[in-house]
Each structure stands twice: as structure tokens, then as C-alpha cells.
Specification:
heterodimer, A: mainly alpha, B: mainly beta, five-stranded mixed beta sheet
């Protein structure tokens, strides 16, 4: 080969190698993400962005072990109930910090994520609301989506208000990195009243344009309806009228609840226990659905007794157990109730059996044995570190068709019910009783709940005073809505938390000798404490620091 | 020998006619004097001189006898040693077997020279065969080192560059090359974080942390930057040399060079008859250390104490009676009261690993080859475990001189990496081993496996009973190079390469159900518990990820000597493209565990799932260098690179990275000659700008992604929801490092070498995410555990500086004992100038002004032992006796977050040092490497409580009502949410992670060649070696080189332990 020809080959080869060397060599179009132009150019994509706003971002370890969190806390290993007198979480996991009154801006335990998650969602809703007009779609669709976004945003404010009180109202702002993030407007907390008024007004606006009911294909189950907006408004107005908030009237709260009842869309489900296992129910007003591939934590293994291979997560307290009436409608402290402390679980309100597993309860073809010595679900059973400290296990939400062992990829499909009709009735009863006293509509509302076919408690006796009715409604709320993230907020808005949350976390020791079983009340977790500052959550310390002190902390922290 | 000058600038070695010739090419300055077009006068003189030379040689030859012999070093025969008669003209070069023959007379002195060895002078005392042993000289000034886009004489280097020979790396053979580097040179921090086969590499940092962004070092293999497959799995037997660019000399790699560059050059063939080399070693591995855990009676007592603290009125025996504890202690009832050492139950004392390596090299004048095959096998530590790593690799490096001017080289290498693991990952297995209660048996006395802890029984999890997770990976690297010496202009040449890298990573994870047993004492039955798989049926997850990188490079070189002036320059263009494609598929509800294939899974739509993704990114670079020296005395170098990257938006895609360096070899000055004890002295300095572009792609626009998790409809179907995953930073561009080095290199008293470097580095435009300063009320909130919403922004600033020094000594005694000793020391300290912090951060808690990676912790100053202590110190409302006392830093009488203080050090050492030793005598050779670090802290809070067992150090020394002198705090439900642990993270759990450890020790013996030659073996060496033989450290419970663990329980020290390896092996040459 001649040198020259070799040179030509070389040059030729080099030209071949660099033939791809065009001027756009560095301009790569990504294939694994969606650019903003596509999102705003395609109404289907835009709607999918809206749909995901029902979910929020994960902000903590052990949060959203399954799918991303929604509003509130929902199904997690440690339930929100374990921050109250309903249950304690067996393995702490940053719940005892609340139970023991150690809650501090730097130690928010599992209660530290609502602030950030809500504001992120609010910004995203604002983004969608700001851009929805530029997306091509029918006006009807646009109106509905806009209403849906405003509902979601209002729900986020509801989450913020009931935990922190007056909050920073962001309006329609969509902040970006180039914006001044030290601006005062990011740190000015509105009053509770202003905050509530804003959220309520938004819900009114949303209710106007939201569909009345869910329907497959057009407005799927899981999306907000007019009823959801009105029911959330009723809840907020109930809070507003409550002593802690003192920012509204009971009459307004009653009227708001009445408006939901008057929709004539909802009714109580007959079976109290099954209500929490099935997503389609006339009672459910707003819920979060789950599916294989998008499941929440496996409730059965995380809460079942050690004798069944479970981890005894959220264990009910005696404090809650004691609030269940006898099935004759009398409270256990009533000498005529027939309550016997040594046979404490006979003849109780049917909801007790649907909510709590107790010594002797039938469960999965067997019997719960919490007694010592030797009970399989006691510390003498297998894996004794997974036995209850309170003497009870959680029954509510548990689906017996799920396996306890090895439930991965299978369990975790129960719907999380954000709002159901029973709450609306309770809201109405409470507001109406406070506004005008125990009139017939109050009795009707409360007795509907008591006389759900599977519950069948006697109707409340006639002639209760307003105060007696108040007590009855509060107890009814406590048992009916147990573990549904109400108790924490109820005892606060009623301003009774300084009593109820300062009562020790009681459990029961069950000992068996021969055929005699003895029940002895005990303290399940020492050091339970509540101070006045705990009526509101502390705003996370990091938030105060990033505002350079401009954001005012809740009192006492 | 005439070497085309362009060779000097070729990418590492490949086109040289064998590495020895390459080395000689560095003497080209002298050679070229003869070869350059010269003036007529000079030419005549030269002819005359040569004529005279030839005459005289032939005249003297008649008076001399033929002397022959062989040259070896550390048992290896050394080819290419020049042997000459002192003050004479006779000379020879040793052949591939180290043999030489030349004419010399008795009384002459023979001088043996080789750039890699210390010269020796040996008198000729008779006609006997000579056996010469040379001591290696890693500091030799004549040595040629591989630098970015070329080679350079070590003597004329102006940058801070360390080199390591392949021969050093194969000492104490490591399956993972990254583990062979610690302690060997200054400036490199190599921390081995885990010993799991397949994932046992060291993290490499050059001069410590210098950025809050990515600190990864760029690895360049045979000239290919960022070659797929990386450094760790290259067969150490294939490595010719390794070069580390620590300063601005790396600027030639521009946008990827800021964290330093490691250049690896593989072996090439040498002209000569084929040389076959085979080596084998057998290793025995065991953990360097495992924490000693509490036994059953101790743990039972702890459980009682925890329950006592939860409910003091219940007394001290709420969980176990004294009688029951006694049963744990005496072992009288192993069914109900076992006492389990989970480490013993799950782990073997020793695991095996082995390596085979076979290579053939040689060549004719025009074609040279190096071919190798390697096999590595590593077993896991688990009893009956499935964990294994097997590697099969080949390499074929072929060079051909097509014409005198045109040379081509083809390098092909391939590797199969077979990893197999049990279904449960190593960190979960070790989490299980450290958590599992000693009060629970691994197996019941009848042999049935127990449910362990939460249905995780580590002794079963390590086995294949729950299915396996196979990860075979194939890597292919191909490089085609060519060079052409352009006629017409002397010193001008063109070269280039085209490389194609591919990797294919397959994953097959089949999880099958199996049975554990739970004994119910009340019914006296063993209840079956099905674990593994999903809901009692098997699942399968298969993944495939393919990656490809193509790099093409073309380069024009000019190298020429003009009198005393030497010029060496190149300009080059390079572009690269990386493409990744992946897919995965999942099936569940397998009818049978016998059919672990995708098509055999459950038939329902919900039983199936799949996913896939891809990305592309491209780079485009213009590179140039100009090196000039005057008589090798004054050295000057300038280089620059313009890098373009698709990672950034048009307009911000290009960065410019220039550097300059200069050197002054004082010892070459005439006036310096009287200083006879200094053999070589060089002052040098470098300054330049380097870049770091190691951030996620496409952060310059808002990124939205599908996150299909919201469920809608009465049929409960998942919707393809869309989330925003990354906010836009349209201005994103390079991170910039400005590096300055000032160094002295000296050789003195014949045997000493010294290097001292002061370096400083200023990082700016550090690509990092804002978080702390952004109020969450803005709605810009980063998620936990996944990629931040906030894009990287060019906001950080970190300065770092330090010193590096190394001192070496090597000598050979008259009696033939060769020995060498070296020490190195690095001090690298970072200082944060700007990091994103909340505006309200308290001064004593700010990171700004402090080193990188420090911890913010409460200062634990003691334990509340008495009520008096509680009265005396500010404390938390819930504090009780046995709790840690936290210092009230701000003196406000309360313990709040304001009282946290920053630790002095992070978990990257500020000081690292190493010592290397070597001795050889009469066929024996001994070498050792020690490595150490200090000014380093590690936070480890074990996952203890009712959630898991305790380290003995805590259990045995815990405060309790009966041990108020305890040195550890009281036990609690969960350390992670304890007032003494995770709830108030404090420096009680911060350990001084300094250590001094023997990294490497090797003793070898080379069998006398005369005996072997009869059986046609050219060389035979046997050796025994050890890795991580012993460690001196203040850390009590875990290996101080480890991390604090990964994942969910990230501070709990649950990682696969580092390995101590004892090797025996043999090298044979034919």
C-alpha cells in the first residue's frame, strides 16, 4: 500500500467517524420525561396532572411505604390514632413523642409533614389553575377541573388549619426558584378566621361546579363531588364554631351539614364493619382507593396479634374501650348498665366488636388469647416483642380475606375514607344541639347512626338536656369515628384535650388461673402528657429558620 | 534505535513497539539529534564519529571474553536492561528472559541500567555466569509516565501525578482493583465500605471532599474517558500502570476532571518470543470485625428494663421472671429459652475466593500482541449462602506497524460479571443478624427453622430457599487506534481512536415462598408460617439494562527538538455519546415454583407489570496542549479544553478549562553542581480551571413524569397520573474548580526520593440543590427518599487546601539484600464558603466556614446518675435517670435544638497516610503496605431496643437502676426514637473513626531458574499474602472503614463487613 492511499483511507475513516458531528450533536430530546409544553398542549395529560394532586409527596421515613400519601395521614404503620387516647403504637416510631408531650418544633415525630406536603400541593394546584385556560378542552371540562383543583387546594388548607390554626394563604401564587423566597408574604399567617373563610369560600365555589355524583368514565369514584365539597365545608364550619377556633357560628355549621343531608345522595351503610373494606358505598362521600400496584401498608400484618404472626402496631387503649356503651344503651359507669369489670366485653355496643380485638374475641377461626400465662397473643406467645402493651389489638379496617403472613403484593386495598355520611350527621347533631338545643332533628341524626342495622343501639332517651346531648354526641363521635383521624382534632377543638390527653394511657392485664380470668387496669405507656401549647402542632423548626424568624411560631413552642 | 517523534503524544502506550521501546523513546532527544536534518558540517562530524565508533568496537572486542548472565528483580526476570562496560563501549540488552551476553574482560565493571530499577555496578571477576538482582526504583527520573492524552518523562512533569505499576497491584491479589490502592500514595483516599462479593469496591477520593456536589473521580482506561465498566473489575494482571492526576494537570479532561483523574493503561505485547504467564491464587476471607452482641440472659434483662421504664409501677420483671432469665443462661430448655449467637448461626468462619490468570504476549517486529484470560470466583460469608461473584474476562491488545508511518492498534476486552444473591439484600441480612434476638433460636432443637425476627430468619434468608437474585453483567470494550506520521513536516503526526463500550446487565429475581415455624408452647405445636414470594406464591422480576458509549477522537501532534528547545503540542477533537436502554417485567402468582419464567406466571392482568426507560447524552470537546522545555531544565506547559455537554441548555453547553504549569529543575543548573548530595531537584507549580458536570440530565426545563399511583373508578384502576419531578433551572452549567499546586521533587543521597506538595482548590458554581433556605410555604418542597424537586443550581463554594508528601528510600546491600521503604501523608481540609442554609441558622450550627460533611448533634456530657444530677443540669421534661446529659450550649436553662453543635470532623478523613515496605533477598521477597486515617468521625446508632439486639459494649455497660455507674445510657424501646438516640441525635454515638491498619503483607519465593529451565519453565514464584491483617482503632464495634449503613436505617451500621483475606498463590512463566 502506498503511503498516500493509506492517508486517504485514514481521512476517509475519520470523516466517517465524525459524520455524526452535526451542529445539533448536543441537542438531545429526552424520552423519559414530559416537557411542560406537552402537558399544556394535551388536555388528557393535563387532566392526569390534576388527578395526581389528590396525592402528596412523601416527606418522612416510614411514610408512604406503599403509594404516596393523600390528605391527612391515612393508612400508615403508625396511624394518627396513636397520637390520641385511641391507641398507642407498639414500637414508638416517633409517636410517643406526641403522647408524652415532647412535641417540639425540632421534634415533630410523625406529625411533621402536613405543613410541607400541603403547601407543595397548593402550589401545584395553583400552577394548574393558572395554566388551565391555555389548555385546549371543552368549557364544561375546564369548569369541572377548575372546581376539582379548588376542592383539593381547600382540602390542603383544611389540613393546615386544623393542625396549625391560622396559616399563610398563598392565593394564586406559583413561586419559582427565581422568585424572592424571603418575601414577607410567604410568612404572614392569616388569622384562623381568615384562613377558614378562605377555605370555605373556595369550597362553595368548588361545590357549585362539581358533579353531584361519581359515575364511571365521566367522573370516576375517587374524584371530588359536590357532596365532598359541601361536607368538607360543614366540617370546617363545625371547627370554626368550636371553642378552640371560636371563629364561626353553630348555626352556620348546622346549616352546612344540613345542606349535605339535603342533597339526598347519601345514606348510612347497613354493615358497619364491612363499610371500611369496600369502596362502593352510599355512605362514603370522599375516599381514597387502592389497587394492586398502588397499595397502602398491609394493615393485617402490621396490626394483628403476635399469635397470628402480626406486629401489634396500633393497639387500642382502655380509654377508648371504656367509652363504648353497653348494648342496652347505657354507659359502663352507669351502675344499672350491667357492666361487670371481670366480664368486660359482654353485651357491648356492636361497634366495639367491629373495632377492637380483646381477650376472648373470635378472630380468623380462633380466639384471641391475651391472657397470661400462656396466651398465644400475650407476651408468652411467639415473638413476644410483638405482643400488645395495652391488652387489645385493632379490629377496624382489617380484612380477614387478606393473609397475615406474607401479604406483600396482596393486602393493602381497603379504601381510606376521608368523609362519610355518618360524620355529616354527627356534625349536624353537634352543631344543631349547640345552636338551638337537642331538637328532634338532633335526635333523628344521632339515632340514625345508633340504629344502623348492624349496630342497633337503643335510641337516645328523650328529654336530654343540651349538656347531656353534648356528652352523648361526643361519645357517639368517639366510638363511631374511632381510628378515622377525628379524635385528635375533636378533643382539641372542644378544648378537652388537657383532660383526655393527660389521662394515662391505660391498658389491661389479663391473667388466667384455671377458668378464672382477671382483668386489671394498668398503665400501658408511662409519661403521657399534654400541655396547652399542644392544642396546635408546632411549625417545623426548619421552616422558622428558613423564614429567618419572620414566620411566627404557635404559642408555647 | 529511531523512534518516530509523534509517539510521544500518543494515547497511552498502545502503538509503541512494546513498552520497553516506549520507554526508550523518552530518550528521543538524544537520538533525534542524530536524526534531525542537520547542517552539513555537523553531519560530517557525525559520520566520522560513527565510523570511529565502529572501528574501535571491533578492535576492542578481540581482547575480551564473552560474559553472560541474567538479570532479575523480586524473582522476576527483567528484559530490556542495558548492560555496558563502564568506560567502555561494549553493551548489550537483556532479552525477554533477562539473559544477556557481552564481551568484557576481568577487572571491568559492568553497569546495569533500567529506568524502572536502581542502577547497579558489578565487577567482572571471572567468566562465570552472572546473576544480577536489581531493586525497583519507582522514583526513577528517567521513567515515563502516562498522562492525559500522552506520555511524559517523569523528570519533566510539572503536575502532581502519582503512578503505580501493575506489578504492585497484583501483590496481595484483590478481586476488586480499587482495594489495592489504599496507602500506596499520597493524595488518594480509598475507603472500603463493604465486603460483599460483587459490591466490595473502595470509594476513591482524590484529596478528600472538595464539593458538596458529586465527588467521583474520572477513570480513563487506555485513553477512553469514563470507559463503561470502570476501574473496579479490571483484571489486575492486565494492568501495566495506573496514573493519578491530582492537580490542574487533569484539566486536559476538562468538564469531568475537577475531582481528579485516574488513568489506567493495560499491558501491550513486546517484540520477542511468546511469553506465557499463569498465576493462581487461593484466598480465604473472613470479616475484619463484627460487633459482639448481647446474649439471651442479658437481652432478657434489658427487655425487663425497657418495660419497667414504660410502666415503672409494674416492677422489674414484667416480661421475664428471674427464673426464665436463668433458663436462658443455663440452656436447660433450649426449645423455650434458647441463647442464640446469630452471627455464628448465619456466618461461616471463612469463605473462599480464587483467581486464575493466563496471558500470552510477544510479537514480531511488525505485530505485537498481549492476550489474557482471567477467572475470579468469590464466595459469600453466609452459611449455606448463595452469594457468589464470578468473573470471566479476556483482553486482546494487538498492535501493528502497517508501514513505517502508519500504525494501528486494536484493543478488545470483555468481561462477564456473574453476581448471585439471595432474595434478601446484604444490608437486610445484616440488619437481621444484628437485630435478631438472642432469645430466639435460629433452628428449634428438632431442626425446624424459626420465624427469626418478624418472619425474617437470617439463616434462611441467606440460602436459595427463598429464591435467588441473579445479576449477570457483560461488559465489552473495543478500541481501534491509528497513528500516522505525516511526511514532509518532521514531528507532525495524526492519530485517533474510535472506542465502543457496551454493557448488558440482566437481572432475574425469583422470590419463592418457603416455610418457617413458630412454636406455640401452649398447644405444643409448630405452626407453619409461609414467607417469601408474595401471598404464598412465587414472584419474578426480570430486568435488562443496556448501555453503550462511543467515543471518537482525532488528534494532530507536533513534537520536535529545536536545539535546546523542545516543543511538544497537540490539538484534538473528541466526541462521545452514551445511550442507555432498560426494561423490566414482573409476574406474580406463579402456579408453581418449578417454572421461574415470565411466561409461567399468573395469568391475570394484575399479575403482570413492566417498565422501561432510556436516555442519551452527548459530549463534544476540543482539546489542546503545548509543552515546552529548555534543556529539560525550564519546563512550561499549557493545556486547555473546551467541553460541550447535552446536560445543559443551549447557550450554557460549553465550558473552557485552561491550565498552565511550570517547572524548574534546579539540579540541572551549573551552579547547583557542587551540591553533590542532591541528585535531582525540581520545583514546580500548576494552576488551572477544571470542571464537574456530574449532575442529572435535563434540569434546564420543568420535568414532568408519569407517577401512576392514584386509583379511580368502581373497578379501582390505577391512572397514569402526572407529577412535576424537577423544577427548571435554565441557567444550569458547570461546576468550576480552580486548582493550584506547588511542589518539590527531589532525589538525594542516591537512595532517597522526596515529594512535597502544597495544594489549594477553590470550587465555585458548585452544583447543588437549595433546600434549607427555601420555605416550604413556597410550595417548593423536596420529597424524602427520591430525587429532589429543586434542580441543581450553581450556588456552592468550597475551598480546600492541604499538603501531600511522600518520602522513599531504596537500596541494595553488598550482600544482595534489596530493600525499600516509603511513607506518604496527605492532609486535605475543606472549608465551606457557601452552602445553602436557612437564613435563621444559628452561628454555631452553620456549615458555612466549616469542613464538609460535619454532623449537627447534641453534645452528650454525661449520664444522669442521681436525682441530684437531674436537679443540677438543664434537662428535658421527660428526662429520667440513666439518660444522657446534653450540654446547654446557649445557657438558657433549656435543652432545645439550639443547643446542637457541629462536629469537628465528618466521615471523610482529613488525614490519611501510608507506609510501604519491601525487602528481597536470594529469591525471597517481602512487602507490606500500611494505611491509616485520622481526623474522621463516624455516627453509628445501632438499631436496638425491643426492635433489636444490642452491641455488647452497650448492653454490658448500660446504665440501669442496678448499675448506676454504667457508661452507656439506659436502654429504651427504640434507639432510633429514644431521647438518648434518634430523637436527640448526639455525639455519644459519634466515634473517632481513626485507624491504622495493615492493608497488605506479602511473602514470596522465586524458585531458582536453573532448576526450572530443565522443565522448560522460565520462572516460578510462590507466595502468601494477607489483606487487612490487623487494625488499630478506637472504634469498638464495627470496622472503622465502613459507612454508617445505607437505606432506611442509615445510621445503624448494618453493612456487609469488610474482609480480611489470606491468599496463597503461584506465578509460572513459560
Amino acid at each position: 500500500m502506498k503511503t498516500n492511499s493509506i492517508l486517504y483511507i485514514l481521512v476517509f475513516a475519520a470523516a466517517g467517524i465524525f459524520s455524526s458531528c452535526k451542529k445539533n450533536y448536543l441537542d438531545i430530546v429526552p424520552t423519559d420525561r414530559i416537557p411542560e409544553v406537552s402537558l399544556l398542549a394535551d388536555s388528557a395529560l393535563f387532566e392526569q396532572f390534576v388527578v395526581n394532586r389528590y396525592m402528596g409527596v412523601r416527606l418522612q421515613e416510614k411514610e408512604a411505604e406503599g403509594t404516596p400519601p393523600g390528605f391527612g395521614r391515612g393508612f400508615e404503620y403508625g396511624l394518627w390514632s396513636s397520637l390520641t387516647d385511641e391507641s398507642i403504637y407498639n414500637n414508638d416510631d416517633n409517636t410517643w413523642v406526641v403522647q408524652r408531650g415532647q412535641l417540639a418544633p425540632e421534634n415533630t415525630g410523625i406529625a411533621g409533614t402536613i405543613w410541607g406536603r400541603s403547601y407543595r400541593s397548593i402550589r401545584e394546584c395553583n400552577y394548574a389553575l393558572t395554566h388551565i385556560d391555555s389548555v385546549q378542552m371543552s368549557d364544561g371540562k375546564r369548569t369541572t377541573l377548575r372546581a376539582e383543583l379548588r376542592f383539593i387546594r381547600a382540602y390542603r388548607y383544611h389540613d393546615l388549619i386544623r393542625n396549625y390554626g391560622g396559616v399563610v394563604l398563598m392565593g394564586e401564587k406559583v413561586l419559582n426558584l427565581e422568585d424572592n423566597l424571603t418575601d414577607e408574604s410567604l410568612f404572614n399567617r392569616s388569622s384562623i378566621k381568615e384562613s377558614l373563610d378562605y377555605a370555605v369560600a373556595e369550597l362553595d365555589a368548588a361545590a357549585k361546579d362539581l358533579p353531584l355524583a361519581n359515575a364511571d368514565k365521566t367522573w370516576d369514584l375517587g374524584r371530588a363531588t359536590k357532596g365532598a365539597a359541601l361536607a368538607l365545608k360543614a366540617r370546617l364550619l363545625l371547627y370554626a364554631a368550636s371553642p378552640l377556633y371560636n371563629a364561626g357560628t353553630w348555626a352556620n355549621a348546622a346549616a352546612a351539614a344540613k345542606a349535605v343531608m339535603d342533597l339526598n345522595v347519601y345514606s348510612l351503610a347497613p354493615d358497619y364493619a364491612k363499610l371500611f373494606l369496600t369502596p362502593s358505598s352510599s355512605e362514603i362521600i370522599f375516599e381514597r382507593l387502592y389497587a394492586i400496584g398502588a397499595r397502602h401498608v398491609c394493615l393485617e400484618i402490621s396490626n394483628a396479634p403476635n399469635g397470628y404472626g402480626g406486629w401489634a402496631g396500633n393497639t387500642p387503649l382502655q380509654n377508648l374501650v371504656d367509652s363504648y356503651e353497653m348494648n342496652n344503651g347505657k354507659v359502663i359507669t352507669d351502675a344499672t348498665s350491667g357492666y361487670n369489670a371481670q366480664t368486660p366485653y359482654t353485651n357491648r355496643d356492636a361497634r366495639f366488636y367491629a373495632t377492637i380485638l380483646y381477650n376472648g374475641a373470635p378472630y380468623r377461626g380462633d380466639t384471641i388469647d391475651i391472657y397470661t400465662p400462656g396466651g398465644k397473643d400475650s407476651k408468652d406467645g411467639p415473638s413476644n416483642w410483638n405482643s400488645t402493651k395495652t391488652g387489645y389489638y385493632l379490629r377496624k379496617f382489617m380484612d380477614d380475606s387478606n393473609p397475615i403472613d406474607n401479604p406483600w403484593n396482596v393486602a393493602g386495598l381497603q379504601p381510606w375514607i376521608y368523609i362519610r355520611y355518618a360524620e355529616v350527621l354527627l356534625n349536624y347533631a353537634e352543631a344543631q344541639n349547640e345552636a338551638v338545643g337537642p331538637d328532634a332533628t338532633v335526635y333523628t341524626a344521632i339515632n340514625q347512626i345508633r340504629q344502623r342495622s348492624s349496630v342497633n343501639q337503643p335510641a337516645l332517651p328523650a328529654g336530654l338536656t343540651q349538656a347531656q346531648m353534648r356528652d352523648a354526641i361526643r361519645r357517639e363521635r368517639q366510638v363511631e369515628l374511632a381510628f378515622e383521624e377525628h379524635r385528635f382534632y375533636d378533643v382539641r377543638r372542644w378544648k378537652i384535650a388537657n383532660v383526655t390527653e393527660n389521662v394515662p394511657a391505660y391498658g389491661v392485664d389479663v391473667t388466667k388461673s384455671g377458668t378464672t380470668t382477671t382483668y386489671t387496669r394498668k398503665v400501658a405507656l408511662s409519661g403521657r402528657a399534654f400541655a396547652d401549647k399542644h392544642y396546635w402542632l408546632p411549625i417545623p423548626r426548619s421552616e422558622i429558620l428558613s423564614s429567618n424568624g419572620k414566620l411566627s411560631q404557635n404559642a408555647g413552642y | 534505535m529511531i523512534i518516530p517523534p509523534f509517539l510521544n503524544d500518543l494515547p497511552p502506550l498502545p502503538l509503541c513497539s512494546g513498552s520497553l521501546n516506549c520507554i526508550h523513546s523518552t530518550n528521543k532527544f538524544l537520538v533525534m539529534k542524530e536524526n534531525r536534518p542537520l547542517s552539513g558540517q555537523y553531519r560530517s562530524f557525525l559520520s566520522f564519529f560513527l565510523f570511529f565508533l565502529v572501528l574501535s568496537v571491533s578492535a576492542w572486542a578481540q581482547q575480551r571474553a564473552s560474559i553472560s548472565g541474567k538479570v532479575s528483580s523480586a524473582g522476576e526476570l527483567v528484559p530490556g536492561v542495558t548492560v555496558r562496560v563502564k568506560h567502555g563501549t561494549q553493551g548489550a540488552t537483556t532479552d525477554v528472559n533477562g539473559q544477556f551476553t557481552l564481551q568484557a574482560a576481568i577487572g571491568d565493571t559492568l553497569v546495569f541500567n533500567h529506568i524502572s530499577y536502581i542502577s547497579r555496578e558489578v565487577p567482572v571477576t571471572g567468566n562465570d555466569r552472572l546473576e544480577i538482582s536489581l531493586a525497583p526504583n519507582t522514583q526513577n527520573v528517567g521513567e515515563v509516565v502516562v498522562v492525559g492524552y500522552g506520555t511524559q518523562k517523569k523528570a519533566t512533569l510539572t503536575g502532581s501525578i502519582s503512578t503505580l505499576k501493575g506489578a504492585e497491584i497484583v501483590k496481595s491479589p484483590q478481586p476488586n482493583v480499587s482495594n489495592s490502592l489504599a496507602g500506596r500514595f499520597s493524595g488518594l483516599i480509598a475507603n472500603n465500605r463493604s465486603g460483599e462479593p460483587g459490591y466490595d469496591g473502595s470509594t476513591l477520593l482524590i484529596r478528600g471532599l472538595a464539593t458538596t456536589g458529586n465527588n467521583d473521580v474520572l477513570v480513563v482506561v487506555d485513553g477512553v474517558p469514563g470507559q463503561i465498566g470502570g476501574l473496579q473489575r479490571i483484571d489486575p494482571n492486565d494492568i501495566e500502570s495506573m496514573t493519578i492526576l491530582k492537580d490542574a494537570s487533569a484539566a486536559v479532561y476538562g468538564s469531568r476532571a475537577a475531582n481528579g483523574v485516574i488513568l489506567i493503561t493495560t499491558k501491550r505485547g513486546k517484540t520477542g518470543k511468546p511469553s506465557i504467564s499463569y498465576s493462581f491464587n487461593q484466598g480465604f476471607t473472613s470479616p475484619t470485625r463484627l460487633p459482639k452482641m448481647a446474649d439471651a440472659p442479658t437481652y432478657a434483662a434489658i427487655r425487663n428494663e425497657i418495660q419497667y421504664y414504660n410502666n415503672p409501677s409494674g416492677g422489674m420483671n414484667q416480661v421475664y421472671t428471674a427464673d426464665q432469665i436463668q433458663k436462658f443462661r443455663d440452656g436447660s430448655d433450649p426449645l423455650n429459652y434458647p441463647n442464640t449467637d446469630w452471627q455464628k448461626a448465619a456466618l461461616k468462619n471463612t469463605a473462599l475466593q480464587h483467581q486464575h490468570s493466563l496471558s500470552v504476549s510477544g510479537g514480531s517486529d511488525n505485530v505485537r500482541y498481549f492476550l489474557s484470560l482471567g477467572i475470579i470466583g468469590q464466595d459469600g460469608l453466609y452459611k449455606h449462602g448463595v452469594t457468589k461473584y464470578n468473573q470471566y474476562n479476556f483482553r486482546s491488545n494487538i498492535d501493528a506497524d502497517v508501514t513505517k508511518r502508519l500504525k494501528v492498534g486494536l484493543s478488545l476486552s470483555g468481561r462477564q460479571e456473574d453476581r448471585i444473591f439471595p432474595q434478601t439484600g446484604a444490608s437486610d441480612i445484616f440488619r437481621g443478624i444484628y437485630r435478631a434476638y438472642p432469645t430466639v433460636a435460629a433452628y428449634y432443637p428438632n431442626g425446624l427453622p424459626t420465624t427469626g425476627i418478624e418472619n425474617n430468619n437470617p439463616v434462611m434468608q441467606v440460602q436459595d430457599i427463598g429464591g435467588t437474585n441473579r445479576n449477570p453483567t457483560q461488559v465489552f470494550n473495543g478500541i481501534l487506534k491509528g497513528s500516522y506520521a505525516i511526511p514532509g513536516i518532521e514531528g507532525l503526526s495524526l492519530d485517533g481512536f474510535l472506542s465502543v463500550d457496551k454493557s448488558w446487565t440482566f437481572g432475574k429475581s425469583f422470590a419463592s415462598p418457603y416455610v418457617l415455624y413458630n412454636y406455640d408452647p401452649s398447644a405444643n405445636i409448630y405452626k407453619q408460617v409461609v414467607v417469601g414470594g408474595s401471598a404464598g406464591l412465587a414472584t419474578l422480576n426480570e430486568t435488562q439494562q443496556n448501555q453503550e458509549m462511543r467515543v471518537s477522537n482525532i488528534k494532530l501532534n507536533f513534537t520536535r527538538q529545536f536545539g535546546k528547545h523542545h516543543v511538544d503540542a497537540f490539538i484534538a477533537y473528541e466526541q462521545s455519546k452514551i445511550v442507555m436502554d432498560s426494561l423490566s417485567a414482573f409476574r406474580m402468582n406463579f402456579p408453581s415454583t418449578q417454572t421461574p419464567e415470565l411466561s409461567q406466571g399468573g395469568p391475570a392482568a394484575a399479575d403482570k407489570n413492566n417498565a422501561g426507560k432510556s436516555y442519551i447524552f452527548t459530549r463534544k470537546s476540543y482539546i489542546g496542549r503545548l509543552a515546552y522545555n529548555y534543556e529539560e531544565k525550564y519546563l512550561l506547559e499549557a493545556q486547555a479544553r473546551i467541553d460541550g455537554s447535552s446536560t445543559f441548555a443551549p447557550g450554557n453547553q460549553y465550558g473552557f478549562f485552561p491550565s498552565v504549569s511550570a517547572g524548574w529543575r534546579i539540579s540541572k543548573e551549573d551552579w547547583f553542581q557542587p551540591v553533590s548530595f542532591i541528585d535531582d531537584l525540581k520545583l514546580r507549580a500548576s494552576y488551572g480551571t477544571l470542571g464537574n458536570d456530574n449532575v442529572g440530565l435535563f434540569q434546564y426545563f420543568n420535568n414532568y413524569s408519569f407517577n401512576s399511583q392514584y386509583v379511580l373508578g368502581s373497578g379501582s384502576t390505577i391512572r397514569p397520573g402526572v407529577d412535576i419531578t424537577k423544577l427548571a433551572n435554565p441557567n444550569i452549567t458547570w461546576e468550576t474548580a480552580k486548582k493550584m499546586d506547588i511542589g518539590i521533587n527531589a532525589l538525594f543521597l542516591k537512595h532517597f526520593s522526596l515529594e512535597f506538595i502544597y495544594f489549594q482548590q477553590k470550587r465555585s458554581n458548585i452544583l447543588t440543590q437549595r433546600n434549607a433556605s427555601i420555605p416550604q410555604s413556597s410550595g417548593i418542597v423536596n420529597p424524602y427518599g427520591s430525587d429532589a424537586l429543586v434542580p441543581a443550581e450553581n450556588i456552592g463554594k468550597v475551598n480546600s487546601n492541604g499538603i501531600e508528601t511522600s518520602l522513599g528510600y531504596s537500596n541494595t546491600t553488598a550482600s544482595g539484600i534489596g530493600y525499600r521503604i516509603g511513607g506518604n501523608f496527605t492532609y486535605a481540609k475543606s472549608k465551606i464558603i457557601f452552602i445553602d442554609e436557612a437564613p435563621g441558622t444559628l452561628a454555631h450550627q452553620r456549615q458555612t466556614g466549616r469542613p464538609l460533611n460535619t454532623y449537627l448533634l447534641y453534645d452528650a456530657i454525661g449520664i444522669f446518675r442521681t436525682q441530684d444530677d437531674l436537679n443540677k443540669y438543664p434537662h428535658l421534661t421527660t428526662n429520667q435517670l440513666g439518660d444522657l446529659i446534653y450540654r446547654d450550649y446557649n445557657g438558657d436553662g433549656q435543652i432545645t435544638a439550639d443547643d446542637q453543635v457541629r462536629s469537628k470532623y465528618g466521615n471523610i478523613p482529613e488525614i490519611t497516610y501510608g507506609i510501604t515496605l519491601g525487602v528481597d533477598y536470594k529469591g525471597f521477597d517481602l512487602s507490606a503496605v500500611f494505611a491509616g486515617q485520622t481526623h474522621v468521625s463516624q455516627y453509628v446508632l445501632p438499631e436496638s431496643g425491643t426492635i433489636g439486639n444490642y452491641y455488647s459494649s452497650w448492653a454490658d455497660n448500660r446504665w440501669s437502676p442496678t448499675n448506676i455507674a454504667g457508661t452507656y445510657p439506659r436502654v429504651d424501646e427504640r434507639a432510633s426514637s429514644s431521647i438518648n438516640g434518634g430523637l436527640y441525635q448526639n455525639n455519644f454515638w459519634l466515634n473517632n473513626a481513626s485507624f491504622f491498619r495493615m492493608k497488605n503483607l506479602e511473602l514470596g519465593y522465586t524458585v531458582n531458574a536453573d532448576i526450572l529451565s530443565r522443565i522448560r519453565i522460565a520462572g516460578l514464584r510462590v507466595y502468601a499474602s494477607a489483606f487487612n491483617l490487623f487494625t488499630i482503632t478506637p472504634v469498638k464495634d464495627y470496622d472503622p472503614e465502613g459507612t454508617n449503613g445505607t437505606g432506611l436505617y442509615s445510621t445503624s451500621g448494618q453493612f456487609y463487613p469488610q474482609q480480611r483475606i489470606i491468599n496463597v498463590g503461584v506465578n509460572v512463566k513459560f
